[in-house]
Amino acid sequence: MRSDIFVYTSLQDPRAQPLIEELGREYESRYGDFYLQESGVPEIQRYPAEVFTPAQGGNFLLLLRNGHAVAGGAFKRLDADTAEFKRIWTDSRLRRQGLASSVLAELEAQALRQGYQRVFLTTGFRQPEAVGLYLGHGYQRLFDPGADLQALRKLPFEKHLSSALHNHPHLHSSNALQAPLLAGV
Hints:
This protein is of the alpha+beta class. It is built from 6 helices and 8 strands.
């Protein structure tokens, strides 16, 4: 049995850095300077870490295995009812184990705990595995799949959350780290 544990922390957590760096390299390999042309800022640096904190209506999650981050994700406040999910990522060496599904479900549960009723997210047009993940978890496309996806650039999705919290019998949240973060919500 794996010893996976969810920890709510911050983007500055040193355990997150290998995942964040790998995500940045992945964006670079898939898109090059495609999005850089829009704003001059690499995609991975577009949002300050503070927007992923409970004080600003967000949160940042790591999935740890034996003390090392193997997957993670975050959300920020989009509006009073909507969390925007960002940075859902799995260590490339550990894909196809359901880790992204577990992270997505835990983020949904946390968004509910923080009072959100809807999730909005986007993925890039060169990330078909992310599209499959979101569709497989009940997200609705907010774009025409027959359209020129490169012209769309970002592919938006939404999901209305139910009040039934998700259970993860094989994963455990770190209550010691989670409780102080929730207190500020």
